Amino acid sequence: MHIGRFNHLILLLSLALCAKAQDQPTTFQNDHHFGRMIFDSAADSVDLTAFVKAIQRTDPRPDLVTTTVVCRAVWRIGEHGGLAVVSRGDGSLMQIKGSSFPGLPIHIPFRMADGRRGFMVVHETPCGLICRDTVYYVEE
Q1: Distance of CA 47 to the CA centre of its chain
Q2: pTM here?
Q3: CA 138 to CA 140: how far, in whole Å?
Q4: What are the pLDDT digits (tens) for 118-137?
Q5: CA-CA distance, 102 to 114, in Å (whole number)?
Q6: Are 28 and 37 in contact (CB under 8 A)?
Q7: Running DSSP on this structure, what letter comes out for residue 13?
Q8: Of all helices (H) and strands (E), which one includes residue 23?
Q9: Closest alpha carbon to 104 in 67, 63, 62, 140
Q10: Model confidence over 27-62: pLDDT tens digits?
Q11: 30: how many CB neighbours lie within 10 A of its CB?
């Protein structure tokens, strides 16, 4: 085999090892398996990206020992059967007293860049595929 052809073959094979077929996920959950997300509008896509960039991870134990915090649902991501649909939150309120989360599924605390507290509440439904609903709540 000609050495030039061999070099081209090696180059093509190495490209296949490092090339990506899809973009990186834009969600706080960095395990997004559905490819691109479906948004109601292009503005929602831009706003969610800005929201996610403003999230700062925090201690898993919230600093709500004696305080009560009221949070509002601002984003919802539904991942079911190979589809990921993003919508703005319905504005529902969640009141958190102390550090307890009675009856809530998985919750991950975070802080926004402006200092407000927030919680990512994740509920997974047992199914053959990924069936997960995530709601982002942010302190008012």
Answers
A1: 13
A2: 0.68
A3: 6
A4: 888 888 888 887 888 999 99
A5: 27
A6: no
A7: H
A8: none
A9: 62
A10: 444 445 556 688 989 999 999 999 999 998 776 555
A11: 8
User: What phi and psi, each to the nearest 5 degrees, are found at residue 117?
Assistant: -85, 155
Q: How many CA atoms lie within 13 A of 90 on its CB side?
A: 5
Strand segments, DSSP code E, in the chain are 38-39, 55-57, 68-80, 83-88, 93-97, 106-112, 117-124, 131-139
The two tokens of residue 68 are 């009560």
Residue pair 44/84 in contact by the 8 Å Cβ criterion: no
Measure the CA–CA gap between 91 and 89, rounded to whole angstroms. Answer: 5
**What's the chain's length in residues?**
140
CA 31 from chain centre, in angstroms, equals: 8
- Other Cβ atoms less than 10 A from the Cβ of 13: the count is 9
Pick from 2-11, 18-27, 64-73, 111-120 the range whose average pLDDT is largest: 111-120
